[in-house]
Specification:
alpha/beta, Immunoglobulin-like, 2 domains, 5-stranded antiparallel β-sheet
C-alpha cells in the first residue's frame, strides 16, 4: 500500500508539472501572430464616441476577446449579444511601460461597439514568470503600469482594463492583490463606471492566486475554461471538457465557487471558439499523439467535422472528428460546437455566474450557429424601448421531442419572421459519426414560425435505428446548427 500511494503521488505530481510546462492559448497565439501577421494601416484620426445605453440587454455578461489579428472581423459581430469586448492586447514591459499596442485605439471598432452600448476594455498582457516578478515586486513599476493603462484607456474613450498575466509565480500572490487593489481604485475614481477584470487559470497549479481576494477587489474573474488538452498533449482529448475524469469545466467552476466564498456574481466562465487537431496512432478517442497539434478556429474545425463526419464524446460532452490521410496516418480534431457550448452556458446559468466569456471573437468566421447559441441562452433581455424579445436571424433547430424516443422523432425548426426557406434538410449521424438518415424540408417560402418534421426512426437503408445517441444537423441555405437526441429500442 505504501508503494502504491507513493507511485500515485508521483504520477499526480508529474502530471501537474507536465501540465504547467506549456504556454496557454492566449500566449501561444499572441507569439504566433506577432511573427506571422501584419496589422494593416488604420485611419484612427476620427473622434471616439462615448458609449450609449445598450438597446438590447443580454441576460448575463457576455465578455469576448477580440485579438488584434482578427482585423476587421468585428464588422460581422452581433454587438447586441456582447456586453464587453476586450481588445487583445497591449503588451506590458517589466518596468510598467507599454510596448506594442497592436493598433490601439481603433476608432471604428470602439465606435461600433459603443453605438450598441457594448463596453470596450483594453487587455494588458505579460506572459513571463520572471517579468511578472520584476514588475509586481517594484512599487514604482506597478504604478507606472497603472498610469500607462489609464492613459491608454482614456485615449480610447474606453471602459476599463482586463489583466492577463500568465505563468504566474506564487511569490507574487500578495503583490498581485496590491496591484489589483490600486488599479481598481484608480480606474473607478478616474473613469466612473469602468471595470477591471482578470484572466484566470482553469487550475491553480502552484497556489499562486488568491481567488477570493481578487474576486472581492475586482469587477470580475474571467476563468479561462480551456486548454485542458493543448498542442503538446500526449493524448487526444477535449479542449474544454464539461464532464469526465480528471480536471473538467465543472470541476473548475466548483473550485472557483468554493475558493471565492461563492462570489458567483464575480465569475465569468470563458469558453473556446477553437480546438486542436493532432496526428495520432489510431482513430480511437484518447489515442496517443505522434506530433504537435495545430490550433483550429471553429470555422475550420466545423468544416473538417462536416467533411469527415462529426462524432460526439459522451464522457466529456464535446464533439470531435477523425480521418486518415493519403498515407493512412490517423488524425483527430477536438473542438466545441453550438451543442457543447450550450451545455457550458447552462452550467453558468445553473450556478448563477456573472456570465460567460469567449476566446475568441471572430474565430467562428461567417458561421451563424455560435451566435445562435448565445442568443438562445443570453439574448432574452428585452430592448429598453420594446417588450419584444430578440428573435433568431437564421433557422434554428429549436427542440427535438420526445427525447429519448422509441419510435418517431419530431424536429421543431424555428423560422425567423421574413425568412424565405430555400434548400434545407436534416442529416442524422450516429455516435460513430456515420450518416444514417437524411430528411428533406419543404422548399417553400414561409412567413416565419415553427416547422415540424418527423423521422420514422429508420435508416436510409430501411432498417430501424439502433439504441444510442444521435446528432441531428440542420442544414439550411448553407448554415448549420445541431442538437443531440437519444433513440431507445
Amino acid at each position: 500500500m505504501k508503494v502504491t500511494l507513493i507511485t500515485i503521488t508521483l504520477l499526480i505530481l508529474s502530471e501537474m508539472i507536465f501540465c504547467q510546462d506549456h504556454p496557454g492559448i492566449h500566449q501561444s497565439q499572441l507569439e504566433h501572430y506577432n511573427q506571422n501577421y501584419i496589422l494593416p494601416e488604420l485611419d484612427n484620426s476620427g473622434t471616439i464616441r462615448p458609449k450609449v445605453a445598450q438597446d438590447r440587454v443580454p441576460s448575463r455578461e457576455v465578455f469576448g476577446y477580440h485579438p488584434y489579428w482578427m482585423g476587421t472581423s468585428w464588422q460581422n459581430y452581433n454587438f447586441d449579444l456582447i456586453s464587453t469586448l476586450a481588445y487583445f492586447s497591449a503588451e506590458a514591459n517589466t518596468n510598467g511601460s507599454l510596448g506594442n499596442l497592436h493598433g490601439w485605439p481603433i476608432t471604428d471598432l470602439i465606435n461600433e461597439a459603443h453605438d450598441h452600448g457594448t463596453n470596450v476594455v483594453l487587455c494588458v498582457t505579460l506572459f513571463s514568470s520572471s517579468g511578472i516578478e520584476t514588475l509586481l515586486s517594484n512599487t514604482t513599476y506597478r504604478q507606472n503600469l497603472i498610469d500607462n493603462l489609464l492613459a491608454q484607456v482614456q485615449a480610447g474613450n474606453a471602459d476599463g482594463v482586463n489583466v492577463d498575466f500568465e505563468s504566474f509565480p506564487a511569490s507574487q500572490k500578495e503583490n498581485m492583490i496590491t496591484f489589483i487593489t490600486d488599479l481598481t481604485e484608480t480606474f473607478h475614481s478616474e473613469i466612473p463606471g469602468s471595470q477591471v477584470t482578470l484572466a484566470m487559470p482553469a487550475v491553480d497549479w502552484n497556489d499562486a492566486w488568491d481567488y477570493n481576494a481578487l474576486a472581492t477587489i475586482s469587477d470580475g474573474l474571467f476563468i479561462m475554461g480551456y486548454a485542458y488538452h493543448w498542442s503538446g498533449s500526449p493524448t487526444t482529448g477535449p479542449v474544454s471538457p464539461l464532464t469526465g475524469p480528471g480536471y473538467t469545466i465543472t470541476w473548475t467552476v466548483l473550485d472557483y465557487l468554493e475558493k471565492t466564498n461563492f462570489q458567483a456574481d464575480k465569475l465569468i466562465l470563458g469558453i473556446p471558439y477553437y480546438g486542436y487537431e493532432w496526428p495520432t496512432t489510431s482513430g480511437s478517442a484518447g489515442a496517443s499523439t505522434t506530433g504537435s497539434g495545430d490550433a483550429k478556429f471553429y470555422s475550420e474545425a466545423i468544416a473538417l467535422a462536416e467533411s469527415y463526419g462529426p462524432l460526439w464524446n459522451d464522457e466529456s460532452q464535446t464533439p470531435w472528428y477523425r480521418y486518415q490521410d493519403g498515407n493512412n496516418n490517423w488524425h483527430q480534431g477536438w473542438y466545441d460546437d453550438s451543442s457543447s457550448l450550450s451545455l457550458k452556458y447552462e452550467l453558468a446559468i445553473d450556478e448563477d455566474l456573472l456570465g460567460i466569456g469567449i476566446w475568441a471573437l471572430g474565430y467562428d468566421g461567417t458561421e451563424p450557429e455560435l451566435w445562435g447559441a448565445l442568443e438562445d441562452h443570453f439574448g432574452t433581455g428585452l430592448s429598453v424601448n420594446s417588450e419584444v424579445a430578440l428573435q433568431p436571424k437564421t433557422p434554428t433547430l429549436k427542440v427535438i421531442y420526445p427525447n429519448p424516443s422509441n419510435i418517431h422523432v419530431n424536429f421543431v425548426i424555428q423560422i425567423p419572421q421574413g425568412y424565405q426557406l430555400a434548400t434545407a434538410y436534416i442529416k442524422i449521424f450516429d455516435v460513430l459519426g456515420r450518416s444514417v438518415a437524411e430528411i428533406p424540408l419543404p422548399a417553400t417560402p414561409t412567413a416565419g414560425g415553427e416547422l415540424t418534421v418527423t423521422w420514422n426512426g429508420k435508416t436510409s437503408a430501411g432498417n430501424l435505428g439502433a439504441t444510442g445517441t444521435y446528432t441531428a444537423l440542420l442544414f439550411a441555405d448553407g448554415q448549420i446548427c445541431s442538437q443531440k437526441f437519444i433513440l431507445l429500442k
